[in-house]
């Protein structure tokens, strides 16, 4: 990677991936774009406003900045998508198709994240294999499976260097989530510090895979820098780091905040989505093909989350 474009840079992943990439490849070599004007993303490198559904504007930015690698991070997440399925399809697939076509025309490598949401209730729940039945029951998941298939098609048909990761729920101490089913795993830390209590929308016994943002950033770069000759799956790799229920994360928080309490007010939509997803993924393909190895577990992450959020709130 030499000249990088991050599309949808203002989201949960992009807002942290941009500075991470700039720290590695240099500020001037990472162009951040978002549909909104986000001044913070232009402080140490180029930023442009871009609607990823506008193919002409998209192609113009790639050409002007001599981009060779694109990160397409545009997506409406699971819970938001269920409220407006048509919009979710139009945004998620529209941005993907423009990314694929622009990358093909300008011979760029392309990364588009997939998700644990690509699996459905008929997929094996425990140790969900890299290659298995995928019949998601959300429009978000349907978009992700479609994205994997289209990315594979462009690689096979046109030789496009497409790569992808099926991310678990992402936990960050810097950026708040944006309408996903796993949002509770971020919100619970803030409420633990502010109120010493949390009302959870997901049932106490539902396991879901999660990952801490530092491991996300490392994984993205590691995959994009991996030797293409060793990549069998490309679109898309399972990765795993930790799996827990709301009750388990609450007990971990209690070790640091003894009077913390959790209660439940279940959101039926989020419960349905959460129960349709795997408990934990088999990530052996990612470990074998490009050396995936997470650094963070629940105990280590909880201590870091609480420390960093306290600092943030004190400011």
Pick out its properties.
six-stranded parallel sheet; three-stranded parallel sheet; 16 strands; alpha/beta; globular; 315 residues
Fold topology:
Elements: E1 4-7, H1 14-25, E2 30-34, E3 47-49, H2 55-64, E4 69-72, H3 78-83, H4 85-106, E5 109-111, E6 114-115, E7 126-128, H5 139-158, E8 162-163, E9 165-167, E10 169-171, H6 184-194, E11 197-200, E12 208-212, H7 213-225, E13 237-238, E14 242-244, H8 246-254, E15 261-264, H9 268-276, E16 280-281, H10 284-290, H11 298-314
Parallel strand pairs: 1-2, 1-4, 2-3, 4-5, 5-8, 6-9, 7-16, 9-13, 10-12, 11-15
Antiparallel strand pairs: 12-14
Summarize the structure.
This protein is α/β, with parallel strands linked by helices and 315 residues long.
Structure description:
The chain is of the alpha/beta class. Helices cover 43% and strands 17% of the residues. It contains 11 helices and 16 strands. It has helices at 14-25, 55-64, 78-83, 85-106, 139-158, 184-194, 213-225, 246-254, 268-276, 284-290, 298-314, and strands spanning 4-7, 30-34, 47-49, 69-72, 109-111, 114-115, 126-128, 162-163, 165-167, 169-171, 197-200, 208-212, 237-238, 242-244, 261-264, 280-281. The strands form 5 sheets. It has a 6-stranded parallel sheet, sandwiched between helices. A 3-stranded parallel sheet has the order 6-9-13. A 3-stranded mixed sheet has the order 10-12-14. α2 packs parallel to α4 and α4 packs parallel to α5 (139-158). The longest helix has 22 residues, at 85-106. The chain is globular and about 55 Å long. It starts with a strand and ends with a helix. 46% of the residues are buried.
